[in-house]
Amino acid sequence: RVRYHCVLGLTATLLREDGTIGSLRHLVGPKLYEANWMELTASGHLATVHCVEVRCPTPPPYVAAYAQCKARSGVRTDIEALNPHKLWCTQALLHYHTAVKRPADKVIIFCDSTHAVRRYARLLGVPFME
C-alpha cells in the first residue's frame, strides 16, 4: 500500500534494475508526457551531462562479509552501499557541488537501499525521501 496522497515519478528511462518495471504503472499511473532529451538540452531545460567514473576500494572486512552473503540479498546491497570509501567519495562530491562550485549545483543522491540512504542522510546532514 502506498502511504502518500500524490506520487510523481520522473525518470530518464522506463528501465529498472530490480525488475519491478511492471509495478510503476500501478504505483504512479500511466506515462502522461514524454520529451526528447536532446531537445530539452538544446532549449536549456537540461544541463549538459558530464559522466565520471569513481572507483572506490572495498575494505577487506567488507569483502569478507560480502562473500558470505547470498546473491541479491538485502544485506549484500547494504554492504555495497555502506562501503566507507563510497561514503567518503559521496561526501567529497556533495561538498564540491554545493560548497565549492559556483554557482552551487542542486544535488540528488540515489541509493538502492533504504537503510543505507537513511544512514547517508544522517551522516551527511541532508534530507532524504523513501
TrEMBL record:
Residues 40-129 form the ERCC3/RAD25/XPB helicase C-terminal domain. Keywords: ATP-binding, Helicase, Hydrolase, Nucleotide-binding. Pfam families: ERCC3_RAD25_C (PF16203). GO terms for molecular function: 3'-5' DNA helicase activity; ATP binding; hydrolase activity. The keyword Nucleotide-binding applies. It comes from the Eukaryota. GO terms for biological process: transcription initiation at RNA polymerase II promoter. InterPro entries: ATP-dep_DNA_Helicase (IPR050615), ERCC3_RAD25_C (IPR032438), P-loop_NTPase (IPR027417). GO terms for cellular component: nucleotide-excision repair factor 3 complex; transcription factor TFIIH holo complex; transcription preinitiation complex. This is ERCC3/RAD25/XPB helicase C-terminal domain-containing protein. It comes from Neobodo designis.
